[in-house]
Amino acid sequence: MNDKNICADPCPIARSLAFLGDAWSLLILRDAHFGLTRFDQFRKSLGIAPTMLTRRLATLTEEGILEKRLYSERPPREEYVLTAAGRDFLPVLIMIGAWGSQHRSGGKLVYIEDAETGQAIKPVAIDEVTGAKIGSRPIRFVLPDGG
Amino acid sequence: MNDKNICADPCPIARSLAFLGDAWSLLILRDAHFGLTRFDQFRKSLGIAPTMLTRRLATLTEEGILEKRLYSERPPREEYVLTAAGRDFLPVLIMIGAWGSQHRSGGKLVYIEDAETGQAIKPVAIDEVTGAKIGSRPIRFVLPDGG
DNA sequence: AAGTGTTACTATCATTTTGAAAGCAATGTT
DNA sequence: AACATTGCTTTCAAAATGATAGTAACACTT
């Protein structure tokens, strides 16, 4: 898809997708938020080929979304943990899940709840300024300056 | 990635990604929300090969995210418009964009504003029940019943 | 000390997907 | 009649993916 060019694209959606625009990366991030950190945990959870997993983890690490952390010196073993940027991706994953719950339901479906109160969570995206739900009002994409 | 199996996955994120987990589909949806409807509009906007575009539009249509609409009988021409499910995907795109704005900034970046008031929009995902921002509290993924 | 297990990979290769370029069908326009 | 427009399809090379097997570095067991 030519990721290099996309990085110069003024669209923040395109920029996000440059390295996160494939299902494996997003599922790895899902599992990382779920608490998985190790190669074999991801591999077993996803049923992904190790070649793929190696490459995806490397890219996510290079892109600052995951970082390696040594958890054993002997034998030397590393795990992958979310960076701040990776943690900030949670709302995206949650909204993806919310769409799936609404439009790809059927059968048992995982839902999310507050870990402390046990209350089921209903995710919505809003404009923090006005409080209006995204989608409830017409929006416009704007490129600043002489674009 | 084996999309058939994913459809039976109880994870709504995985289900969403079964057919939306690639960059082209997401960029097509972005453009559709921007107002594009025609084959050549998408092709030119994205620089995508027509083979790819044909396949992606077909899948998105089969999956009920876009639908074909005849806009000219002679010559017979069709355009692609968002269905309700497609329109509901806007919050996801906006959150993807919000992440990109924060973590892939640099240079001129498109932002979104209210089309009527001109106010810039700051998208956040919250729990509609409590109003708490997603990410501000620990959450848990739950599979109901005997899972 | 030899064998077995664990974890995180790499190597190899067949299959699938993608991308680039060109072509085509059904019209409208000049 | 020739050219333009729109929405594709055909063809084929190149790249990505997936499956399977193997390796490296150690720990643990016998």
Plain-language structure description:
The structure is a homodimer of 147-residue chains. Chain A is built from seven helices and five strands. Chain A is α+β, with helices and mostly antiparallel strands and 147 residues long. Chain A has a two-stranded antiparallel sheet with strand order 1-2. In chain A, strand 1 and strand 2 form a beta hairpin. The mean pLDDT of chain A is 94. The interface between A and B is large, with 77 and 77 residues. Chain A binds a DNA duplex (30 and 30 nucleotides) through helix 4 and helix 5.
Précis, in short:
The structure is a homodimer of 147-residue chains. The first copy, chain A, is of the alpha+beta class and 147 residues long.
Key traits:
homodimer; 147 residues; alpha+beta; two-stranded antiparallel sheet; 44% helix; 18% strand; globular; DNA-binding
List the helices and strands and how they pair.
Two copies of one chain form a homodimer.
Chain A: H1 3-6, H2 12-20, H3 23-34, H4 39-46, H5 50-62, E1 66-72, E2 77-82, H6 84-87, H7 90-103, E3 111-114, E4 123-127, E5 139-142
Antiparallel strand pairs in A: 1-2
The first copy, chain A, binds a DNA duplex (30 and 30 nucleotides) through α4 and α5.
Domain HTH hxlR-type (chains A, B): 11-108
Keywords (chains A, B): DNA-binding, Transcription, Transcription regulation
Protein name (chains A, B): Helix-turn-helix domain-containing protein
